[in-house]
Amino acid sequence: MVASVPDVLRLAVLPVLGWAAWRDVKIRRVPSRAWYPLVGLGALLLVWDAVGHRSLSAPGDALFFVRVGISLLLVAPIAYLFWRLGGFGGADAKALIAISVLLPTFPSYYFAGFSLPVVVTTLGVFSMTVLTNTVVVAAGYPLAILARNLADGEVTVPVALFGRRTDISALPTAHGRLFETTQGYTRNGLDIDALRMYLRWRGTSLAAVRSNPGWARDPASIGETHDPTDGAVGAVGDGGGEATPPDSDAAYDADPADPWGADAFLDSIDGTAYGTSPETLREGLAVVTERDAVWVSPGIPFIVPMFVGTLIAFVYGDVVFGVLGALGVV
């Protein structure tokens, strides 16, 4: 393989993204420090490349700076905007911002008889290609969920396209949102991380709450509270603690002012527990204590399609541009 030193160094993004994708699948958490070395390396390589184009006399010198400007002033802000609007998680936005700095223009790798990437866009902004490839890969996620549900005999529409029927016993290590309420289906159900936060705050477990929901619904049953953490899997085991219910439902308020202590929980924590309202928390707790299996919308661990989209970008190039070219559109 023949390539410039900057382009060889830019391959460092692949193992970092691969590791981040694995973390995103396992615990939906990627530490911010993972992206700092890529941003630092990207800034260094930008200076390196800029020195080579500083004369603006060779063909493509001016275009290099235009492409860098598009990557830094368009792709990076798009990542930030999507995060602010809730379309991206924080790690997703940071990953794309790091890519916009590290990979503003198309790298080139020459082998005997061929070169990669195969399809290079007219625009020539590699970070934009990574973004569009990621969107294309992510679009297949609902289809994969549907195929798995059909294979399991779950044909309820539209939930089979966006959710997985999950046994209650699996919720302590699950990710996503409840896709149902006591009244039907919803795309805005209780976030499973928020459920773990609530259980850790109470110092109890889902199994304990399910064993006596009447007791758990009465806020008088809440004793010493604890650090709710951020709801990550494995932070405090299954969310279990010392608080256990009595053997009978005899002593509890059937119509408390603050059912489940939802208001007390949300008032006691920093932030909003992933946008959870007291009503959403109460409805979610009612669902998980009444049913043995629930539909969960797992969401997209977006760094996974980003890793795949980046790998495709290095090898094939721009998927959308390639398809449009094959159709004679570009």
Automatic annotation (TrEMBL):
<feature type="region of interest" description="Disordered">
    <location>
        <begin position="217"/>
        <end position="254"/>
    </location>
</feature>
<dbReference type="InterPro" id="IPR052218">
    <property type="entry name" value="Preflagellin_Peptidase"/>
</dbReference>
<dbReference type="InterPro" id="IPR000045">
    <property type="entry name" value="Prepilin_IV_endopep_pep"/>
</dbReference>
<feature type="transmembrane region" description="Helical">
    <location>
        <begin position="34"/>
        <end position="51"/>
    </location>
</feature>
<feature type="domain" description="Prepilin type IV endopeptidase peptidase">
    <location>
        <begin position="13"/>
        <end position="118"/>
    </location>
</feature>
<feature type="transmembrane region" description="Helical">
    <location>
        <begin position="118"/>
        <end position="141"/>
    </location>
</feature>
<keyword id="KW-1133">Transmembrane helix</keyword>
<keyword id="KW-1003">Cell membrane</keyword>
<feature type="transmembrane region" description="Helical">
    <location>
        <begin position="302"/>
        <end position="327"/>
    </location>
</feature>
<keyword id="KW-0812">Transmembrane</keyword>
<dbReference type="Pfam" id="PF06847">
    <property type="entry name" value="Arc_PepC_II"/>
</dbReference>
<dbReference type="GO" id="GO:0005886">
    <property type="term" value="C:plasma membrane"/>
</dbReference>
<feature type="transmembrane region" description="Helical">
    <location>
        <begin position="95"/>
        <end position="112"/>
    </location>
</feature>
<keyword id="KW-0472">Membrane</keyword>
<protein>
    <submittedName>
        <fullName>Peptidase A24</fullName>
    </submittedName>
</protein>
<feature type="transmembrane region" description="Helical">
    <location>
        <begin position="63"/>
        <end position="83"/>
    </location>
</feature>
<dbReference type="GO" id="GO:0004190">
    <property type="term" value="F:aspartic-type endopeptidase activity"/>
</dbReference>
<dbReference type="Pfam" id="PF01478">
    <property type="entry name" value="Peptidase_A24"/>
</dbReference>
<feature type="domain" description="Preflagellin peptidase C-terminal">
    <location>
        <begin position="291"/>
        <end position="319"/>
    </location>
</feature>
<dbReference type="InterPro" id="IPR009655">
    <property type="entry name" value="Preflagellin_peptidase_C"/>
</dbReference>
